[in-house]
Amino acid sequence: MKEGKHISLKDLACELGISISTVSRALKDSPEISGEVRLRVKALAKEWNYRPNPFAMSLLKNTPRIIGILIPDIVTHFYSSIITGIDNIARQNGYSVIITSSYDSYKAEIQCIEDLVNVRVEGIIACLSQETTDYLHFTSLEDLNIPLVFFDRICLPDVFSSVIADNIESARLATLHLLNTGSKRVAFIGGANHIEIVRQRKHGYLQALREYRIPIDKDLVFCKYMGYSEGYEGACKLLSLSNPPDAILAMTDSIAFGAMKAIKEHRLRIPDDISLIGYTDEMHSNYVDPPLTAITHQTHKMGQTVCHLLLKQIKKREKPQQIIIPTYLAVRESSVKNNQRVPPTKNTI
Amino acid sequence: MKEGKHISLKDLACELGISISTVSRALKDSPEISGEVRLRVKALAKEWNYRPNPFAMSLLKNTPRIIGILIPDIVTHFYSSIITGIDNIARQNGYSVIITSSYDSYKAEIQCIEDLVNVRVEGIIACLSQETTDYLHFTSLEDLNIPLVFFDRICLPDVFSSVIADNIESARLATLHLLNTGSKRVAFIGGANHIEIVRQRKHGYLQALREYRIPIDKDLVFCKYMGYSEGYEGACKLLSLSNPPDAILAMTDSIAFGAMKAIKEHRLRIPDDISLIGYTDEMHSNYVDPPLTAITHQTHKMGQTVCHLLLKQIKKREKPQQIIIPTYLAVRESSVKNNQRVPPTKNTI
DNA sequence: TTGAAAGCGTTACCAA
DNA sequence: TTGGTAACGCTTTCAA
Fold this sequence. Notes:
Number of helices of chain A: 12
CATH superfamily of the largest domain in chain A: Response regulator
CATH topology of the largest domain in chain A: Rossmann fold
CATH architecture of the largest domain in chain A: 3-Layer(aba) Sandwich
Oligomer: homodimer
């Protein structure tokens, strides 16, 4: 039984007194093997619990069937949910998944890519760190012939395929929703300007203001970093303006929660004094006080879609394409001023 | 340059007109190599971007430097946070990590273990699915000589090492806290009884009641499944009792959030009508209304500790040990009845 | 129908 | 100081 060590074809061949090649063929139902041998081989393989050695296989074929994921972190629900979607599709297609986290550090991101290349992943799915402004570590993957697909925080759309949310439109609709439900001065809290999703969402926000013929007030836009503390900081700054906003569109869930804290500390009521909308898909939006209106991502679908896109690229390199996954606005209490109640959408939970 | 394909030692050797062994030695600073050759080899390796093929290595050494993780899911903050801890330590020690999710299904769990074995992980870190009552798929790992370490939801502590929280004590202290802050009838919502942490936490809960000389009322214990809906269901049932509780100790965060929903639907005030404590370490506990008092796990430390434990077992099989990671009670608003205000602990954020 | 041998990329041992 | 060779587990010619 060879306890401990793994069983190899050689072990089986020895025991049965036949050659390794015969065993190999018998196991894969090669037509040129006698039924009797096949049965004996299979029986023993089963009894001894034989499993092909994946490293020998990878060495031989140079296709380890592993895809690499690079994300900012795994604890943010948005990312872990997308990973779940990726993982499902990968498994269905016989791939394993290996996850690396940049923790939003440019330096760590480079190391992650290096690690993934070193384990010879067949392809990579990535979401940029907030710090990243240089893409050399990604473009150099082309020389190694490792396909790369981005999601959410993307770059170089002419070079790499990507999956994103309908950022412009979602921000536009969210802003319009605020303006339609009693808010007059809508502020925007985002992240650093070099990040594509920041620009897109701000774009949608500004477009809505334009549609409403509201002059743009630069003081109402706070863009620094996407994080809880910056949400808090941004809201504090906005609230201390001589002419403060009566609504905030926060670009991420953590920003929204930070802003919420600031608003409560200022003893303002949500939504009557300040309306608030977040970008999130977390069920926690439902539990906060008041329940948070939020642009909701179809994270699972996003994950599945990126993975499909990558698998396609692995099979056959194609020119880059971009897929947009629609979001929807889950209207809860934080956005509708009380003299403006509208019936909740069916997405409200 | 060999675009596309990976560079091998052979490629370097060919180009330099020396043998493969020499290249191999030069690259790893073998003392028995002339400085001149070493330099030339290293220069070319760098220029051509040579990376050792990990599969050849794994094949040779039979130590792929991969550890497998089996968890119920990745989106629950508790698990993703633990994974982060595991991952940090694993990387520090040159290991990669591969994650599989059982989605709390026994059948899927068996498949996950099978997958991990097939990729030849050197060891496995696992947290049981809620459905699991049979451990054959784990004990059979012993025959394969693959070390296994559990965390949180564990089994067979005499066979496998494990890392757990101080479940009995934490539940005891939480219950005492409720009784000390105005609650008279404390209920417990847990999961299925075959799960060790359920039994332990219930044990701590009952012990606290005994210390307070409060007779045990079976109606106040609801144990079915650890999930949001069951938290809701349990709370509904408890609240409809002829003699309902005035406090609930929920065994997980999702149970607590479900219970919170039920309580609000019953138009009861937290904590004045019903106090509520959850088991969680999420920052979201701070955002809910009211902020949730919760037993807080040191998830990162738990992850690091399991990983260390596993690495030790990989290096040298040792007899199983159990490590207990202390929790602390973060007292917030949901547990202290208003006529009983105590100063918040320093853990309150 | 079966077996022998080469090859995938690397290391380690033995010769030179 | 170097080179040749065997070995890791498997597949795939090529021969028998």
